[in-house]
Design a protein that fits this description.
Helices cover 8% and strands 58% of the residues. It is mostly beta strands and 238 residues long.
């Protein structure tokens, strides 16, 4: 039997990238963290930017390759050195990531290193007000509310950056330990924005105690097509 891209080999759970999201909806709740909280969430050699910018992400992701799913997460703006160019770049590190299907969870973790867990995720409109939340084990760990009163302008945030860890089968450490960067392609169809409110809580299996909010920035909502390509390795741990 020849090996397939993922297991089980007779009926793989997911295919190889790129992945295509046609008509995705993204809700970004941008806020400022303290310097201490940002540093606590970024693994070396990633570094904070001067802004200490963070965001809650909520998304409706109609993926061709894995089927539709909901997504949410906590994002941290970071700096890293691109090993191909030697230049410093800005990226978005996923410190926490949640999805609603096993396919999206496994593919995200195993291919790119997204730190995905299964959760209940909601993102709904009430007139011009968009509300979203993540619930795990009867605890709402992430939530945001935004009254979208203005047009929203897309800002290139750089690649999605993830800590890609694969444990050794004997439990003695990691078979693979690296940082990846995926340069997504966005085709923005429309955007809205407004003042945003957020709330972050720790749950039984989700520790957000390191996150300290200094103030909110803006809420952004976009309809967009997205292409998620294979990732590049930007750092390998010895």
């Amino acid at each position: 039997m020849s090996l397939r891209f993922s297991t089980p080999v007779s009926s793989p759970l997911y295919p190889s990238p790129p992945y295509h999201y046609d008509g995705a909806e993204l809700f970004l709740a941008l806020f400022y963290g303290t310097e201490k909280s940002v540093q606590a969430l970024l693994p070396e050699p990633l570094r904070p930017t001067d802004m200490n910018l963070m965001a809650l992400l909520f998304g409706r992701q109609p993926c061709r390759e894995t089927g539709p799913f909901m997504e949410a997460g906590l994002l941290v703006q970071c700096l890293f050195e691109n090993p191909e160019t030697g230049e410093e770049e800005v990226g978005v590190f996923f410190s926490h990531n949640f999805v609603t299907t096993d396919v999206a969870m496994a593919a995200g973790r195993e291919i790119w290193g997204y730190p995905r867990k299964l959760a209940k995720i909601s993102m709904d409109w009430d007139g011009d007000v968009l509300r979203a939340y993540v619930e795990r084990h009867d605890t709402v760990v992430l939530q945001a509310r935004c009254e979208m009163t203005e047009e929203g302008e897309w800002i290139d945030s750089g690649p999605n950056v993830n800590l890609h860890l694969i444990p050794r089968p004997d439990g003695s450490g990691h078979a693979l330990a690296e940082i990846t960067a995926a340069y997504l392609d966005y085709d923005i169809k429309s955007g809205r924005s407004g003042d945003v409110e957020i709330e972050i809580n720790s749950g039984p299996d989700d520790d957000f105690s390191a996150v300290a909010v200094e103030g909110t920035m803006i809420g952004l909502y976009f309809k967009t097509d997205i292409i998620l390509p294979p990732a590049r390795v930007i750092h390998r741990y010895e």
